[in-house]
Design a protein that fits this description.
The protein is α/β, with parallel strands linked by helices and 473 residues long. The chain has helices spanning 18-32, 49-52, 90-93, 104-118, 138-144, 173-178, 183-186, 198-205, 214-219, 223-226, 230-235, 269-283, 306-318, 331-343, 356-365, 381-387, 398-403, 422-436, 439-451, 457-472, and strands at residues 2-6, 36-42, 56-65, 68-79, 82-88, 128-132, 155-160, 168-170, 191-192, 195-197, 208-211, 240-242, 293-297, 322-326, 348-351, 368-371, 391-395, 415-417. The chain folds into two domains: 2-246 and 457-472, 3-Layer(aba) Sandwich (Rossmann fold), CATH 3.40.50.2000; 269-451, Glycogen Phosphorylase B (Rossmann fold, 3-Layer(aba) Sandwich), CATH 3.40.50. Helix 5 links the parallel strand 6 and strand 7 (155-160).
């Protein structure tokens, strides 16, 4: 089968978050399942020259987006059995950031329109187009309104990575920018509180839609989690599946990671201890051999649970634990943790930055990873931490609930708490800290984490089965 994976970012080319990890690793896993997979994404100005030098120029054309006629260059690159297409237009994609521009609706409408316009010019036709999040949500809608017949047998799958970002715009954008019929608005397919909501439209128009974990799929029927789209989810639940994200286990591998001071595996107690010693020296945390390190690697925003971390910080420090924060986000949280580092010198380390190297060092050197997210569609941080033998402490939501089995279950691989409160989180942290002092039990937990099957193999099969059923239908 031929699968086109349309995505707005993908590692290692361009990354702002977890979507890029999925965009970079799932297509490779689908290829391993026998599919002919191709990925298409914008050629952003920030994509490094080392990738550009490997690209081949395919052709150029002009894309009509209502009254706009824009240049489009198409480049390709083959890597890991997957062909990648890059859409070049400097007006839309040579920006300081890939999201958050005043004309994001127009930029990604151009990208979606381009995807469909260039496919007939390629010597390859997809059986299925898998779209991802609002940036590619117009593709199923454009196919609905296509009258050429070319796409009559092409199926669409739409994947929700985070329902909080829906692609909502004023009604005037519908015909002037998107070039879509007003009927889609008045029929209710795109209308949401007098705005245009293109994620809602994709849910209705795609042949199937998915999200990134089974528990998150269940949660999206609940108004608390669904950001206003719970009834839309309910209306289309007959074609909805939650599939747990996997991890690129070749990339996230402490046995080969070049960014950590000592490589190690599940049977090596000394390797992780050496990484912990190096991390403490790097961050000025002193001798940590007899002190557990709890780490948070995340965007510093409210829905990631940092209100709980801030509320409980004094209690965490009082438990003779050290806390490492890595990430950027809301200014109030950045300031809070910088101040905490000043107040608790040598105990709290605030790394207000994005650094892949520092992240690897923290994954390898910390004892526990804390993820108290208010909501978490899937979460990759806990899975990466497990690969490095760093035990997760999580709030029981979304993919965190699906990946972390709380101690003291026989097959436990972490700790969790049910109620979203600082007190409940602290009970779980206390339990983890007590368990850390039982070295035999802790070693069993870390080894179980490191040998856990976190690969894409099973989830890729689930996607293949969905694609196959749609093609046969």
């Amino acid at each position: 089968m031929n699968v086109l994976y349309a995505v707005s970012e993908a590692a290692p080319f361009i990354k702002t978050g977890g979507l890029a990890d999925v965009g970079g690793s799932l297509p490779k896993a689908l290829s391993c399942q026998g599919a002919d997979v191709r990925v298409i994404l914008p050629l952003y100005g920030s994509i490094a020259d080392k990738w550009r030098l490997k690209m081949n120029f395919c052709f150029y054309t002009y894309i009509q987006l209502t009254w706009r006629r824009q240049y489009c260059g198409v480049f390709s690159l083959k890597q890991d059995g997957v062909i990648w297409y890059f859409i070049d237009n400097e007006y839309y994609f040579k920006r300081d950031s890939i999201y958050g521009c005043y004309d994001d609706g127009e930029r990604f409408a151009f990208f979606s329109r381009t995807v469909l316009d260039i496919l007939p010019k390629l010597d390859w036709k997809p059986d299925v187009i898998n779209c991802n999040d609002w940036q590619t949500a117009l593709i199923p809608l454009y196919i609905r309104e296509d009258h050429s017949g070319y796409y009559s047998d092409v199926k669409t799958v739409f994947t929700i990575h985070n329902i909080e970002y829906q692609g909502r715009f004023g009604k005037e954008i519908l015909s002037d920018v998107f070039g879509l019929s007003d009927a889609l608005y008045y029929q209710g397919i795109l209308r949401y509180e007098n705005d245009v909501n293109i994620m809602k439209g994709a849910i209705y128009e795609a042949d199937h839609f998915t999200t990134v974990s089974p528990s998150y799929a269940q949660e999206l029927h609940n108004p608390y989690f669904a950001s206003g789209l719970h009834q839309v989810i309910e209306d289309n639940s007959y074609k909805f599946t939650g599939i747990l994200n996997g991890l690129d286990t070749d990339h996230y591998n402490p046995m080969t990671d070049p960014l950590i001071p000592v490589n190690y595996g599940p049977e090596s107690d000394t390797g992780k201890a050496a990484c912990k010693e190096a991390l403490c020296a790097e961050l000025g945390l002193g001798d940590c051999r007899d002190t557990p390190i709890i780490a948070c690697i995340s965007r510093l925003v409210g829905h990631k649970g940092f209100d709980l971390v801030a509320e409980a910080l004094d209690r965490i420090v009082s438990r003779n634990a050290k806390l490492v924060i890595l990430g950027t986000g809301d200014a109030n949280y950045e300031s809070f943790f910088r101040d905490a580092e000043h107040r608790y010198k040598g105990v709290v380390s605030a790394n207000i930055m994005y650094s892949e190297k520092r992240a690897s060092q923290v994954y390898a050197g910390a004892d526990m990873i804390l993820m108290p997210s208010r909501s978490e569609p899937c979460g990759l941080t806990q899975m990466i931490a497990m690969r490095y033998g760093t035990v997760p402490i999580v709030h029981e939501v979304g993919g965190l609930k699906d990946t972390v089995r709380p101690y003291p279950a026989e097959n436990a691989n972490g700790f969790s708490f049910y109620y979203y409160s600082a007190d409940d989180m602290m009970r779980s942290i206390d339990y983890a800290l007590d368990t850390w002092h039982d070295k035999d039990t802790w070693c069993s937990l870390t080894r179980r984490d490191m040998v856990e099957d976190l690969s894409w193999a099973r989830s890729a099969k689930d996607y293949i089965n969905i694609y196959d059923s749609l093609i046969k239908r």
